[in-house]
Amino acid sequence: MRLPGRLSAAIAVLTDMEARKRPASEALKAWGLNNRFAGAGDRAAIGNLVYDALRRRASHAALMGSDTPRALVLAVVVRDWGEEPAALNESFAADNHAPEPLSDAEMARAVGQLADDTPGFVLADVPGWLAPSLQRGFGDNWIAEGQDMAGRPSLDLRANTLKATRERVMKSLARFSPGETAIAPLGVTVKAGPRDARTPNVTTDEGYLKGWFEVQDQGSQIVAALAGAQPGEQVLDLCAGAGGKTLALAAAMMNKGQIFAYDSDRNRLAPIYDRLKRNGARNVQVRAPQPGALDDLVGKMDRVVIDAPCTGTGTWRRRPDTKWKLTPELLAQRLAEQTAILAEGQRYLKPGGTLVYITCSILPEENDDQVAAFIAAHPGFAPVALEDMWAAAFGTALPADLATSRGGIAPTPRLTGTDGFYFNALRRTE
Predict the structure, then answer these.
(1) CA-to-CA distance for 413 and 156, rounded, in angstroms?
(2) What is the C-alpha separation between 404 and 268, in angstroms, rounded?
(3) 310 has catalytic annotation
(4) Quick one: which H or E segment has residue 304?
């Protein structure tokens, strides 16, 4: 397929998303199944067009004066991919699968500039109702944070020290020109490419199949390292999900001690079993959700790690469609879940134990505010000096711009080139 046909396909996918109210990943998969003539390069290019349209939906729509799938895709190909409107129309005329030619108005808008009075939330490419929250969390930098959250993410991997070294992983993936992550000591990264660049499928690599590495964003690696799990400890991963952070904890503990991996959703937990085997993680006991599944752990844990259910606003680069589906009602639901799981998690700590709170959110309501509310409701807990935890994990001083007003740590795409995460730790004092 040439570019005109790819643009038509991207418009069709976005139209399908709107009509069927389904995620981008499902709509792209459906298009691929219905158009088997399209090669891997075509599917990658179409996916990039769709995701780029969603990442900057607000500013694309403002520029074009419309948020239709056609307007968004035309904005991407001119504004982000650098195509000239006149040249596009020439290519459209020579391709039977092309969209309708750009009108004079579309051509003028596509190469124009946003108005001086464009609202901040449009410049930041975020839902308008979230602007006050982001401004409270990031101050004068909130628009810049939103803009970086609308970029393409890198492909990050974590070397599994139970089986390999970072150097071994990089050698295995040399054909993709990987680099070392800036902060995470075991991280390997492949930069996002421009336009129709394909993301490497590393899950078919020999190293992945042998358990040498896991796909894990550097931000997730950072907060897992900050959790500070030590060999010989008793650790509860209360929201283990598919086990990404569980595996990182197991490697940090060198298979010594015990990790109890639990999740309230069996479907989320299901992949962990195969991942544990492939990684060689032998100190993990999976606890399936059932009444009394964790009763024997009450008051016995050295460390409880809560990777809490959240809005996922920190992952907008990877899942931009979720940005525009988030509602105040869904946020309120997540806040209630976080409050409940923090109250539940603290029950399993022994005196002197550490409660670790993690989200992949950039909203203060889910982060600092939750920690403050927990401390107010549980006076037997005190903040841990995160400067010391950072130094222990990475051997450097905590960058001042990563520290939040309530003593948390918050990596973001703008600050660290990672997904948006939040980390805090509290110690039981009684």
Answers:
(1) 13
(2) 30
(3) no
(4) strand 301-307
Q: What's 167's domain CATH number? A: 3.30.70
Count structural domains, the chain.
Answer: 3
In terms of Cα–Cα distance, which of 302, 325, 365, 342 is closest to 135?
365
Q: Which residue shows structure tokens 């020439």?
A: 90
Length of the chain equals: 430
Give the residue among 91, 99, 32 at the shortest CA–CA distance from 68: 99
Strand order in the sheet with 258-262: 284-287, 258-262, 234-237, 301-307, 349-359, 422-428, 381-383
pTM recorded for the entire structure: 0.96
Cα dihedral 132/374/337/134 (nearest 10): 10
Count CB neighbours of 81 within 10 A.
16
Cα separation values, 388 from 304, 384, 385, Å = 19, 8, 6
pLDDT digit string, tens, across residues 315-337: 999 999 999 999 999 999 999 99
Exposure b/e, 223-250, CB count within 10 A at least 16 = b: bbbbbbbeeebbbbbbbbbbbbbbbbbb
Is 351 inside a domain boundary?
Answer: yes
Candidate list 342, 360, 363, 371, residue with the active-site label: 360
Distances (CA, A) of 381 to 162, 224, 225: 34, 21, 22
One-letter identity of residue 83:
E
DSSP 199: P
In a domain, 11, yes or no: yes
What tens digit of pLDDT does each residue of 188-224 get?
A: 999 999 999 999 999 999 999 999 999 999 999 999 9
Fill in the DSSP letter of residue 409. Answer: B
In a domain, 86, yes or no: yes
The token pair at 73 is: 């895709």
CA–CA gap between residue 392 and residue 252 (Å, rounded): 12
Calpha distance 363→365 (Å, rounded): 5
Longest dimension (CA), the chain: 75
Q: Give the range of the structural domain holding residue 281, as residue numbers without chain letter.
A: 218-428
